[in-house]
Amino acid sequence: MTAKDRARLAAERLKALYPAVSELDHVNPFQMLVATILSAQTTDRSVNSVTPALFARYPDAAALAHANPVEVEAMIRPTGFYHVKAKTIIGASAALVERFHGEVPTRIEDLVTLPGVGRKTANVVLGVAFGIPGFAVDTHVKRLTRRLGLTKSTDPVKIEAEVTKMLPPEEWTGFSLRLILHGRRICIARTPRCPECVLNDFCPSSTVRAKGRRRLLTATAASVRLAHGRAAARKRPRPPRPHH
Ligand code: SF4
């Protein structure tokens, strides 16, 4: 099976399992952009816990661009790195006002010029907020595409370039979002739950088959070791009993 076959099969199987959704609450592209920036190094749940109050206080880029940083920091504190994140979302909002009439641009080339917006954030915003195909490579996508043997690279830009060659554009956003969900629920970083995974029959990293093989080998090796041990024990002369 080629990497392209695995990509297509994985996309198909995951489609049957997960909706193509982001777990970040938002009602427009501006909110999606801010929520995605805030989601760095934290959980979507933590972002969702602060954004309702944040967006009620600062409903658009113009409002957030003129926000008091200390006040924003206090509101987003639970998401961690709140000092940098406050500076970034205020800066990104100011850039939107200055260069894009307060609107989130729809071209990746423009999105990545905003403070704190890399290709990952830009692709998420494009795909989720605008329905424009984008394959976002976050930590889960990076791990899963490598485990699935779709890439050997650790560079998100290369991974994006490789995987997008394997799938039609209309699959990019959904595949990325579903890999993220699968990475959170099943293909967990430390201990992937391969026995529960719908991809375990063709995933090159599946521990289901490997474990089976390992078990067989272990059992054989153990019996060989045991037999040798017994033989050695039989051959070994008994130490003489001490005389009293
Ligand atoms: S089989 Fe295991 S390693 Fe492969 S995708 Fe599923 S959980 Fe991850």
Descriptive overview:
This protein is mainly alpha-helical and 244 residues long. It folds into two domains: 3-185, Endonuclease III, domain 1; 206-233. The protein has twelve helices and no strands. The protein has helices at residues 3-15, 29-38, 44-57, 61-65, 69-76, 82-100, 108-111, 119-130, 139-147, 156-166, 169-185, 207-235. Helix 1 (3-15) packs across helix 11 (169-185), helix 2 (29-38) runs antiparallel to helix 8 and helix 9 packs across helix 11. The chain is elongated. The chain starts with a helix and ends in a 9-residue tail after the last helix. The chain binds iron/sulfur cluster.
What is the CATH homology-level superfamily of the largest domain?
Answer: Hypothetical protein, domain 2
Computed Rg: 26 Å
Give a quick account of the main beta sheet: strands, pairing sense, barrel closure.
none
- Percent helix: 55-70%
Helix and strand arrangement:
Blueprint: H1 3-15, H2 29-38, H3 44-57, H4 61-65, H5 69-76, H6 82-100, H7 108-111, H8 119-130, H9 139-147, H10 156-166, H11 169-185, H12 207-235
Helix pairs in contact: 1-11, 2-8, 5-6, 8-11, 9-11
Bound molecules: iron/sulfur cluster.
Iron/sulfur cluster is lined by residues 144, 147-148, 186-187, 192-194, 197, 199-200, 203, 205-206.
